[in-house]
Design goal:
GO terms for molecular function: AMPylase activity; ATP binding; magnesium ion binding; protein homodimerization activity. Adenylyltransferase that mediates the addition of adenosine 5'-monophosphate (AMP) to specific residues of target proteins. Its EC number is 2.7.7.108. It is a single chain. This protein is mostly helical and 389 residues long. The chain has two domains: 7-293, Fic-like fold; 311-382, Arc Repressor Mutant, subunit A, CATH 1.10.10.10. The chain is 57% helix and 6% strand. The chain has helices at residues 40-60, 64-82, 89-96, 105-126, 134-144, 183-194, 203-217, 224-238, 250-255, 257-270, 273-310, 316-329, 334-337, 345-357, 376-383; strands spanning 7-14, 17-24, 331-332, 362-363, 373-374. It has a three-stranded antiparallel β-sheet with strand order 3-5-4. Strands 1-2 form a two-stranded antiparallel ribbon. α1 (40-60) packs parallel to α11 (273-310). The two termini are 34 Å apart.
Length: 389
């Protein structure tokens, strides 16, 4: 590891207590990163290869939207769980299906807002050809914190007060980000780094550095963790590494929270970017391979269930049409299926009963009216690792 500083401290006081706030130096690090140690070159190659496999399998899926629709929601859930929400994937899907009595609405709204923020960011990058910029980050933040618990946390606006991480006060905190008057310069430097031409730095390295810098600046009153994780995906998509937003590191960060925070502090305190980069690259490789495995298991499940439906004979046509709706949304009611098919409600209900008899779907509310059916095995595969903390 090169001996380097990564910023400087400035004094502050709050309610009579003194503290030191940290202002990071602009990226890239100086001296430059040393990739020769810690097997970093091999770890980067492994991560690049795993990303290539992941990008390839999304093209092989018969309906990539089917996979991504659910996968984006799983990432949204995991990223929000790290911040303390207690929703499950079923809660989110029921909420989106307008069939969620008893679900903690504030929690689920936070997760749903994450999905909206990601979709907005990608649409702006692709359809509007808008640069990955502070303005876009603020737009996404406004969506992330709309409604619910975030509405009073300055959605879409950079903070105007001092924040701290851990502890009851800045003086006793684990880390104190820059004071608000230092934000404009720190954020302008981050934006310049984001605008570095593609190819000037490997995209994975750029994403790893930008994530730490964003979390260190902590530019918003709330939502920094979720937005910092979104930033990784946006960089990889904007740099052309991924065609679809199919890589998400929240499960890796969730399972290794202590390591994650220790390594962030290692960068801030002694400039150890290399240890953080190794951790990040390992996370990319592991997470990308897990996503490939998940996609392959879901493809196998769909193929197996389609074959079972085909064996029904005369009923196979209508049952298959209804099944394909569950393959797209996982949790559905009969009225939600009806607009998508030229079938009568009684015919749809009969098809759902056939799917129940095959053990492919099951009713999840226990009610006689407003019944909701789940493609349970699909949901189970997707929910692995996504239980509330």
């Amino acid at each position: 590891m090169a001996d380097r500083t990564t910023g400087h401290y400035v004094p502050g006081t709050l309610a009579g207590s003194r503290y030191q706030a940290f202002i990071p130096d602009p990226l890239p690090p100086h001296p430059p990163l040393d990739l020769s140690g810690g097997g970093l070159i091999a770890r980067k190659e492994r991560a690049d290869q795993a990303l290539g496999r992941l990008d390839g399998i999304t093209l092989m899926l018969p309906d990539p939207e089917l996979f991504l629709y659910q996968y984006v929601r799983k990432e949204a859930l995991l990223s929000s769980q790290i911040e303390g929400t207690q929703s499950s994937l079923s809660d989110l899907l029921l909420f989106e299906a307008d069939a969620a009595p008893g679900v903690p609405i504030d929690d689920v709204e936070e997760v749903s807002n994450y999905v909206a923020a990601l979709k907005h960011g990608l649409r702006r990058l692709r359809e509007d050809e808008f640069p990955l910029s502070l303005r876009l980050i603020r737009e996404m933040h406004a969506l992330l914190l709309r409604g619910g618990r975030g509405a009073n946390k300055q959605p879409g606006e950079f903070r105007t007060g001092q924040v701290w991480i851990g502890g009851p006060s800045p003086a006793l905190a684990h880390f104190v980000p820059p004071p608000p008057e230092a934000l404009p310069d720190a954020l302008a430097a981050l934006e310049r780094f984001l605008h570095e031409p593609a190819g000037s730095m490997p995209p994975l390295v750029k994403a790893a550095l930008a994530h730490v810098q964003f979390e260190t600046i902590h530019p918003f009153s709330d939502g920094n963790g979720r937005l910092g994780r979104l930033l990784i995906t946006l960089i990889l998509c904007s740099e052309g590494v991924l065609r679809e937003p199919s890589l998400y590191l929240s499960l890796y960060f969730k399972r290794r929270r202590a390591d994650y925070y220790d390594l962030l502090n290692g960068v801030r305190m002694c400039g150890d970017w290399e240890s953080w980069l190794g951790f990040f690259l390992d996370g990319v490789a592991d997470t990308a391979q897990q996503a490939v495995d998940t996609a392959q298991r879901l493809l196998a499940l769909l193929a197996r269930d389609r074959a079972r439906i085909a064996a029904l004979g005369k009923r196979a046509g209508n049952v298959g049409l209804v099944f394909e709706q569950f393959a797209r949304r996982v949790l559905l009611t009969v009225p939600q299926v009806a607009p998508h098919l030229a079938l009568s409600p009684p015919t749809i209900r009969a098809a759902v009963r056939a799917l129940e008899e095959l053990g492919i779907v099951n009713e999840v509310t226990g009610q006689q009216r407003h019944r909701v059916f789940a493609y349970q095995q699909y949901l189970d595969i997707l929910s692995e690792g996504a239980q509330p903390l």
